[in-house]
Amino acid sequence: MGLALVRATLSDWRCAHELEVGFSPAMTVLVGPNASGKTNTVEVLQLLTAGTSFRRPSPADLVRQGCEAGRAELRLEGDGRVVDVACIATVSSRRFTRNGKAVRPSAVPGTLLSVLFTPDDLDLVKGPAKGRRGEVDGFGSQANAGFSRVCRAYARSVEQRNRLLKDPACDLSVLDAWDASVALGGATLLYHRMGLVRRLAPLVQEVYGDIAGGERLEVAYRCTVPGVEEGMGRDAMAAAMAAALAAGRADDLRRGATGVGPHRDDVDFSLEGRPLRTFGSQGQQRTAVLAWKLAQVRFAEERLGERPVLLLDDVMSELDGTRRSAVSSYVDTGIQTVVTTTHLGYFDSETLAGAEVVPYGEHA
Ligand SMILES: Nc1ncnc2c1ncn2[C@@H]1O[C@H](COP(=O)(O)OP(=O)(O)OP(=O)(O)O)[C@@H](O)[C@H]1O
Asked: Which annotated residues bind ATP (predicted)?
Protein backbone atom coordinates (compact mmCIF):
# COMPACT_ATOMS: atom_id res chain seq x y z
CA MET A 1 0.00 0.00 0.00
CA GLY A 2 2.83 2.44 0.80
CA LEU A 3 2.88 5.71 2.67
CA ALA A 4 0.22 8.40 2.30
CA LEU A 5 -0.21 12.01 3.43
CA VAL A 6 -2.06 12.36 6.72
CA ARG A 7 -1.58 15.99 7.73
CA ALA A 8 0.58 19.06 7.23
CA THR A 9 1.33 21.50 10.03
CA LEU A 10 2.67 24.96 9.23
CA SER A 11 3.98 27.44 11.81
CA ASP A 12 5.06 30.92 10.72
CA TRP A 13 5.47 29.47 7.24
CA ARG A 14 4.82 31.76 4.24
CA CYS A 15 1.48 33.49 5.01
CA ALA A 16 0.41 30.97 7.70
CA HIS A 17 0.81 31.71 11.41
CA GLU A 18 -0.52 28.31 12.57
CA LEU A 19 -2.23 25.97 10.13
CA GLU A 20 -3.06 22.28 10.22
CA VAL A 21 -4.49 20.52 7.18
CA GLY A 22 -5.73 16.92 7.23
CA PHE A 23 -5.72 14.88 4.00
CA SER A 24 -8.12 12.27 2.75
CA PRO A 25 -6.55 9.03 1.50
CA ALA A 26 -8.43 9.80 -1.74
CA MET A 27 -9.02 13.42 -2.81
CA THR A 28 -8.56 16.60 -0.79
CA VAL A 29 -9.78 19.87 -2.27
CA LEU A 30 -8.22 23.07 -0.89
CA VAL A 31 -10.73 25.80 -1.72
CA GLY A 32 -10.40 29.54 -1.17
CA PRO A 33 -9.94 32.90 -2.87
CA ASN A 34 -6.73 34.07 -4.50
CA ALA A 35 -3.82 34.62 -2.11
CA SER A 36 -5.39 32.59 0.71
CA GLY A 37 -2.41 30.21 1.00
CA LYS A 38 -3.51 27.15 -0.98
CA THR A 39 -0.39 27.03 -3.15
CA ASN A 40 1.77 27.57 -0.07
CA THR A 41 0.38 24.28 1.29
CA VAL A 42 0.96 22.49 -2.01
CA GLU A 43 4.52 23.82 -2.02
CA VAL A 44 5.06 22.30 1.45
CA LEU A 45 3.80 18.94 0.18
CA GLN A 46 6.27 19.05 -2.70
CA LEU A 47 9.16 20.30 -0.56
CA LEU A 48 8.71 17.55 2.04
CA THR A 49 8.29 14.74 -0.49
CA ALA A 50 10.55 15.73 -3.40
CA GLY A 51 13.04 17.83 -1.41
CA THR A 52 12.60 20.78 -3.79
CA SER A 53 10.03 23.48 -4.47
CA PHE A 54 8.83 24.55 -7.91
CA ARG A 55 9.13 28.15 -6.73
CA ARG A 56 12.86 27.81 -5.96
CA PRO A 57 12.55 29.96 -2.82
CA SER A 58 15.37 31.29 -0.68
CA PRO A 59 15.03 30.24 3.00
CA ALA A 60 13.88 33.77 3.87
CA ASP A 61 10.94 33.44 1.42
CA LEU A 62 9.62 30.51 3.43
CA VAL A 63 9.58 32.29 6.79
CA ARG A 64 6.48 34.31 7.57
CA GLN A 65 7.24 37.97 7.12
CA GLY A 66 8.42 39.54 10.38
CA CYS A 67 9.30 36.17 12.00
CA GLU A 68 12.72 34.67 12.61
CA ALA A 69 11.95 31.05 11.82
CA GLY A 70 9.23 28.94 10.28
CA ARG A 71 8.44 25.25 10.37
CA ALA A 72 6.51 22.93 8.07
CA GLU A 73 5.88 19.33 9.01
CA LEU A 74 4.27 16.44 7.22
CA ARG A 75 2.88 13.27 8.79
CA LEU A 76 2.96 10.23 6.52
CA GLU A 77 1.44 6.88 7.44
CA GLY A 78 1.15 3.48 5.82
CA ASP A 79 2.38 -0.11 5.95
CA GLY A 80 2.32 0.13 9.76
CA ARG A 81 4.80 3.01 9.66
CA VAL A 82 4.60 6.64 10.72
CA VAL A 83 7.08 9.08 9.17
CA ASP A 84 7.34 12.75 10.12
CA VAL A 85 9.29 14.91 7.68
CA ALA A 86 9.94 18.54 8.59
CA CYS A 87 11.66 21.60 7.23
CA ILE A 88 12.84 24.33 9.56
CA ALA A 89 13.67 27.60 7.83
CA THR A 90 15.31 30.71 9.19
CA VAL A 91 16.01 33.82 7.17
CA SER A 92 19.41 32.41 6.19
CA SER A 93 19.15 28.61 6.37
CA ARG A 94 16.92 25.64 5.75
CA ARG A 95 17.24 22.19 7.24
CA PHE A 96 15.27 18.99 7.03
CA THR A 97 14.49 16.31 9.61
CA ARG A 98 12.96 12.86 9.33
CA ASN A 99 11.44 11.50 12.54
CA GLY A 100 13.34 14.21 14.39
CA LYS A 101 16.77 13.39 12.96
CA ALA A 102 18.56 15.82 10.66
CA VAL A 103 18.77 14.66 7.02
CA ARG A 104 20.22 16.22 3.88
CA PRO A 105 17.81 17.66 1.29
CA SER A 106 19.00 14.93 -1.11
CA ALA A 107 17.72 12.32 1.39
CA VAL A 108 14.15 13.69 1.37
CA PRO A 109 13.00 12.23 -1.98
CA GLY A 110 12.27 8.54 -1.92
CA THR A 111 9.98 8.44 1.12
CA LEU A 112 6.83 9.28 -0.82
CA LEU A 113 6.88 10.02 -4.52
CA SER A 114 4.92 13.12 -5.54
CA VAL A 115 3.86 14.44 -8.92
CA LEU A 116 2.98 18.13 -9.09
CA PHE A 117 1.08 20.13 -11.69
CA THR A 118 1.05 23.93 -11.42
CA PRO A 119 -0.10 26.60 -13.90
CA ASP A 120 3.60 27.43 -14.50
CA ASP A 121 4.06 23.95 -15.92
CA LEU A 122 2.70 25.25 -19.22
CA ASP A 123 6.31 26.33 -19.67
CA LEU A 124 7.07 22.66 -20.15
CA VAL A 125 5.63 22.97 -23.62
CA LYS A 126 6.17 26.67 -24.32
CA GLY A 127 9.38 27.40 -22.44
CA PRO A 128 13.05 26.60 -22.99
CA ALA A 129 14.47 23.06 -23.19
CA LYS A 130 16.07 23.41 -19.75
CA GLY A 131 12.65 23.04 -18.12
CA ARG A 132 11.90 19.84 -20.03
CA ARG A 133 15.29 18.35 -19.18
CA GLY A 134 14.75 19.33 -15.54
CA GLU A 135 11.33 17.68 -15.54
CA VAL A 136 12.73 14.36 -16.77
CA ASP A 137 15.65 14.52 -14.34
CA GLY A 138 13.38 15.56 -11.44
CA PHE A 139 10.98 12.67 -11.94
CA GLY A 140 13.82 10.23 -12.60
CA SER A 141 15.55 11.33 -9.40
CA GLN A 142 12.44 10.84 -7.29
CA ALA A 143 11.87 7.43 -8.84
CA ASN A 144 15.45 6.26 -8.44
CA ALA A 145 18.21 7.67 -6.22
CA GLY A 146 20.82 6.44 -8.72
CA PHE A 147 19.36 8.77 -11.37
CA SER A 148 19.90 11.76 -9.11
CA ARG A 149 23.57 10.78 -8.56
CA VAL A 150 24.07 10.43 -12.32
CA CYS A 151 22.63 13.93 -12.91
CA ARG A 152 24.83 15.50 -10.25
CA ALA A 153 27.99 13.71 -11.42
CA TYR A 154 27.46 14.78 -15.05
CA ALA A 155 26.73 18.41 -14.09
CA ARG A 156 29.93 18.48 -12.00
CA SER A 157 32.05 17.03 -14.83
CA VAL A 158 30.72 19.55 -17.35
CA GLU A 159 31.32 22.39 -14.89
CA GLN A 160 34.94 21.29 -14.31
CA ARG A 161 35.56 20.84 -18.03
CA ASN A 162 34.12 24.29 -18.74
CA ARG A 163 36.36 25.80 -16.08
CA LEU A 164 39.38 24.21 -17.75
CA LEU A 165 38.27 25.31 -21.23
CA LYS A 166 38.18 28.91 -19.98
CA ASP A 167 41.68 28.65 -18.50
CA PRO A 168 44.19 30.34 -20.87
CA ALA A 169 46.79 27.81 -19.66
CA CYS A 170 44.49 24.84 -20.37
CA ASP A 171 46.51 21.61 -20.13
CA LEU A 172 45.30 19.38 -22.97
CA SER A 173 46.19 16.15 -21.19
CA VAL A 174 44.00 17.21 -18.26
CA LEU A 175 41.29 18.10 -20.78
CA ASP A 176 41.57 14.54 -22.15
CA ALA A 177 40.75 13.23 -18.67
CA TRP A 178 37.71 15.54 -18.38
CA ASP A 179 36.56 14.51 -21.86
CA ALA A 180 36.57 10.89 -20.70
CA SER A 181 34.61 11.80 -17.57
CA VAL A 182 32.04 13.91 -19.48
CA ALA A 183 31.68 11.18 -22.14
CA LEU A 184 31.02 8.46 -19.58
CA GLY A 185 28.78 10.60 -17.35
CA GLY A 186 26.92 11.95 -20.39
CA ALA A 187 26.33 8.46 -21.79
CA THR A 188 25.02 7.22 -18.44
CA LEU A 189 22.64 10.19 -18.18
CA LEU A 190 21.50 9.74 -21.78
CA TYR A 191 20.87 6.06 -21.23
CA HIS A 192 18.70 6.77 -18.16
CA ARG A 193 16.86 9.74 -19.67
CA MET A 194 16.12 8.09 -23.00
CA GLY A 195 14.95 4.93 -21.27
CA LEU A 196 12.62 6.91 -19.00
CA VAL A 197 11.11 9.02 -21.81
CA ARG A 198 10.72 5.90 -24.00
CA ARG A 199 8.72 4.19 -21.25
CA LEU A 200 6.69 7.28 -20.36
CA ALA A 201 5.76 8.21 -23.95
CA PRO A 202 3.07 5.54 -24.57
CA LEU A 203 1.49 6.29 -21.19
CA VAL A 204 1.38 10.03 -21.98
CA GLN A 205 -0.29 9.24 -25.31
CA GLU A 206 -2.85 7.00 -23.64
CA VAL A 207 -3.73 9.51 -20.91
CA TYR A 208 -3.94 12.40 -23.40
CA GLY A 209 -6.33 10.33 -25.52
CA ASP A 210 -8.49 9.60 -22.47
CA ILE A 211 -8.78 13.29 -21.57
CA ALA A 212 -8.91 14.92 -25.00
CA GLY A 213 -10.43 12.21 -27.20
CA GLY A 214 -8.99 11.01 -30.51
CA GLU A 215 -5.97 13.33 -30.95
CA ARG A 216 -2.55 11.67 -30.96
CA LEU A 217 0.10 13.23 -28.71
CA GLU A 218 3.66 12.07 -29.17
CA VAL A 219 6.57 12.64 -26.81
CA ALA A 220 10.13 11.87 -27.85
CA TYR A 221 13.58 12.55 -26.45
CA ARG A 222 15.66 14.64 -28.87
CA CYS A 223 19.31 13.81 -28.41
CA THR A 224 21.72 16.35 -29.90
CA VAL A 225 24.80 14.12 -29.68
CA PRO A 226 25.69 12.92 -33.20
CA GLY A 227 25.61 9.14 -33.53
CA VAL A 228 23.44 8.48 -30.45
CA GLU A 229 20.29 6.56 -31.34
CA GLU A 230 17.30 5.07 -29.56
CA GLY A 231 17.94 1.61 -28.14
CA MET A 232 21.75 1.98 -28.17
CA GLY A 233 23.77 0.48 -25.31
CA ARG A 234 25.62 2.65 -22.80
CA ASP A 235 29.09 1.81 -24.19
CA ALA A 236 28.10 2.79 -27.72
CA MET A 237 26.64 6.04 -26.34
CA ALA A 238 29.91 6.74 -24.48
CA ALA A 239 31.88 6.17 -27.70
CA ALA A 240 29.58 8.57 -29.58
CA MET A 241 29.91 11.17 -26.81
CA ALA A 242 33.72 10.86 -26.83
CA ALA A 243 33.82 11.27 -30.62
CA ALA A 244 31.52 14.32 -30.45
CA LEU A 245 33.63 15.94 -27.73
CA ALA A 246 36.81 15.35 -29.75
CA ALA A 247 35.19 16.79 -32.89
CA GLY A 248 33.92 19.85 -31.01
CA ARG A 249 37.05 20.51 -28.95
CA ALA A 250 38.36 23.46 -31.00
CA ASP A 251 34.95 25.19 -30.81
CA ASP A 252 34.66 24.41 -27.11
CA LEU A 253 38.09 25.96 -26.45
CA ARG A 254 37.09 29.07 -28.36
CA ARG A 255 33.76 29.38 -26.53
CA GLY A 256 34.99 28.22 -23.14
CA ALA A 257 31.99 25.87 -22.83
CA THR A 258 31.03 22.30 -23.65
CA GLY A 259 28.85 22.47 -26.76
CA VAL A 260 27.70 18.89 -26.96
CA GLY A 261 26.04 16.52 -24.50
CA PRO A 262 22.75 15.79 -22.76
CA HIS A 263 22.80 19.29 -21.24
CA ARG A 264 21.81 20.51 -24.74
CA ASP A 265 19.05 17.96 -25.40
CA ASP A 266 15.29 18.43 -25.47
CA VAL A 267 12.01 16.57 -25.25
CA ASP A 268 9.65 17.07 -28.20
CA PHE A 269 5.87 17.18 -27.79
CA SER A 270 3.90 16.88 -31.02
CA LEU A 271 0.19 16.66 -31.74
CA GLU A 272 -0.89 14.82 -34.86
CA GLY A 273 2.73 15.14 -36.03
CA ARG A 274 2.95 18.92 -35.55
CA PRO A 275 4.92 20.73 -32.82
CA LEU A 276 2.62 21.35 -29.86
CA ARG A 277 4.49 24.53 -28.93
CA THR A 278 3.55 26.31 -32.18
CA PHE A 279 0.41 24.46 -33.28
CA GLY A 280 -1.36 23.58 -30.02
CA SER A 281 -4.00 25.78 -28.41
CA GLN A 282 -3.53 26.84 -24.79
CA GLY A 283 -6.02 24.14 -23.73
CA GLN A 284 -4.25 21.45 -25.77
CA GLN A 285 -0.89 22.46 -24.31
CA ARG A 286 -2.30 22.40 -20.79
CA THR A 287 -3.89 19.00 -21.38
CA ALA A 288 -0.59 17.66 -22.75
CA VAL A 289 1.30 18.79 -19.64
CA LEU A 290 -1.38 17.26 -17.45
CA ALA A 291 -1.18 14.00 -19.42
CA TRP A 292 2.61 14.01 -18.96
CA LYS A 293 2.13 14.39 -15.19
CA LEU A 294 -0.65 11.78 -14.93
CA ALA A 295 1.54 9.41 -16.96
CA GLN A 296 4.22 9.80 -14.28
CA VAL A 297 1.66 8.71 -11.69
CA ARG A 298 0.73 5.69 -13.78
CA PHE A 299 4.39 4.86 -14.41
CA ALA A 300 5.10 4.98 -10.67
CA GLU A 301 2.16 2.70 -9.95
CA GLU A 302 2.64 0.21 -12.78
CA ARG A 303 6.40 0.10 -13.20
CA LEU A 304 7.76 1.03 -9.80
CA GLY A 305 5.01 -0.47 -7.65
CA GLU A 306 4.67 2.85 -5.77
CA ARG A 307 1.57 4.82 -4.89
CA PRO A 308 2.51 8.44 -5.49
CA VAL A 309 0.60 11.48 -4.32
CA LEU A 310 -0.74 13.76 -7.04
CA LEU A 311 -0.65 17.52 -6.37
CA LEU A 312 -2.76 19.64 -8.71
CA ASP A 313 -2.51 23.38 -8.22
CA ASP A 314 -5.29 25.28 -9.97
CA VAL A 315 -5.64 22.69 -12.70
CA MET A 316 -9.31 23.17 -13.55
CA SER A 317 -9.67 26.87 -14.28
CA GLU A 318 -8.46 26.80 -17.89
CA LEU A 319 -9.94 23.50 -19.03
CA ASP A 320 -13.31 23.20 -20.73
CA GLY A 321 -16.13 21.24 -19.08
CA THR A 322 -15.44 17.99 -20.94
CA ARG A 323 -11.76 17.97 -20.04
CA ARG A 324 -12.55 18.98 -16.46
CA SER A 325 -14.79 15.98 -15.96
CA ALA A 326 -12.24 13.72 -17.68
CA VAL A 327 -9.63 14.95 -15.17
CA SER A 328 -12.09 14.50 -12.28
CA SER A 329 -12.81 10.91 -13.20
CA TYR A 330 -9.12 10.32 -13.81
CA VAL A 331 -8.06 11.38 -10.34
CA ASP A 332 -11.08 9.65 -8.84
CA THR A 333 -9.41 6.26 -9.23
CA GLY A 334 -7.88 5.87 -5.81
CA ILE A 335 -4.74 7.98 -6.29
CA GLN A 336 -4.21 10.22 -3.27
CA THR A 337 -4.75 13.68 -4.75
CA VAL A 338 -4.56 17.21 -3.37
CA VAL A 339 -6.12 19.81 -5.62
CA THR A 340 -6.51 23.56 -5.15
CA THR A 341 -9.31 25.65 -6.56
CA THR A 342 -11.06 28.98 -6.13
CA HIS A 343 -14.35 27.46 -7.17
CA LEU A 344 -15.95 24.17 -6.06
CA GLY A 345 -18.29 24.36 -9.06
CA TYR A 346 -15.44 23.01 -11.22
CA PHE A 347 -15.98 19.59 -9.60
CA ASP A 348 -19.02 17.40 -10.07
CA SER A 349 -21.04 16.53 -6.97
CA GLU A 350 -20.05 12.86 -7.12
CA THR A 351 -16.35 13.75 -6.96
CA LEU A 352 -16.94 16.21 -4.12
CA ALA A 353 -19.00 13.68 -2.14
CA GLY A 354 -15.95 11.42 -1.82
CA ALA A 355 -13.49 14.27 -1.14
CA GLU A 356 -12.28 16.11 1.93
CA VAL A 357 -12.93 19.81 1.32
CA VAL A 358 -10.61 22.18 3.22
CA PRO A 359 -11.65 25.85 3.21
CA TYR A 360 -9.00 28.58 3.04
CA GLY A 361 -9.24 32.35 3.58
CA GLU A 362 -12.76 33.71 3.80
CA HIS A 363 -14.07 30.18 3.16
CA ALA A 364 -12.38 28.98 6.37
N1 LIG B 1 7.14 34.62 3.59
C2 LIG B 1 5.90 35.10 3.48
N3 LIG B 1 5.35 35.83 4.48
C4 LIG B 1 4.09 36.30 4.40
N5 LIG B 1 3.29 36.10 3.33
C6 LIG B 1 3.79 35.38 2.31
C7 LIG B 1 5.10 34.83 2.34
N8 LIG B 1 5.32 34.16 1.17
C9 LIG B 1 4.17 34.29 0.46
N10 LIG B 1 3.26 35.01 1.13
C11 LIG B 1 1.87 35.35 0.71
O12 LIG B 1 1.07 34.22 0.75
C13 LIG B 1 -0.13 34.53 0.05
C14 LIG B 1 -0.77 33.28 -0.44
O15 LIG B 1 -0.10 32.75 -1.57
P16 LIG B 1 -0.57 31.43 -2.31
O17 LIG B 1 0.25 31.40 -3.56
O18 LIG B 1 -0.52 30.24 -1.45
O19 LIG B 1 -2.11 31.77 -2.66
P20 LIG B 1 -3.23 30.89 -3.35
O21 LIG B 1 -4.30 30.68 -2.34
O22 LIG B 1 -2.64 29.69 -3.98
O23 LIG B 1 -3.73 31.90 -4.45
P24 LIG B 1 -4.15 31.73 -5.99
O25 LIG B 1 -5.56 31.19 -5.99
O26 LIG B 1 -4.10 33.15 -6.46
O27 LIG B 1 -3.15 30.87 -6.66
C28 LIG B 1 0.28 35.56 -1.00
O29 LIG B 1 -0.43 36.76 -0.77
C30 LIG B 1 1.75 35.79 -0.73
O31 LIG B 1 2.15 37.13 -0.89
From this structure: 32-39
Task: Report how far ligand 1's centroid is from the alpha carbon of 67 (Å).
Answer: 16
- Of 257, 292, 327, which one is at a domain's C-terminal end? 292
Asked whether residue 96 falls in the same domain as residue 136, the answer is: no
Q: Residues marked as binding for ATP?
A: 32-39
| pLDDT at position 103 | 94
- Ligand 1 contacts CB of residue 35 (under 6 A): yes
Helix (H, G, I), strand (E, B) or coil at 113: coil
Give pTM, 2 decimals.
0.88
User: Which strands make up the sheet holding 94-98, listed edge to edge?
Assistant: 16-22, 4-13, 69-78, 81-90, 94-98, 101-103
In a domain, 40, yes or no: yes
**Domain shared by 108 and 146, yes or no:** no
Q: What is the pLDDT of residues 69-96, one digit of tens each?
A: 999 999 999 989 999 999 999 999 999 9
Nearest C-alpha to atom 29 of ligand 1 is from which residue?
Answer: 35
Cα of 122 from ligand 1 centre, angstroms? 20
Does one domain contain both 28 and 80?
yes
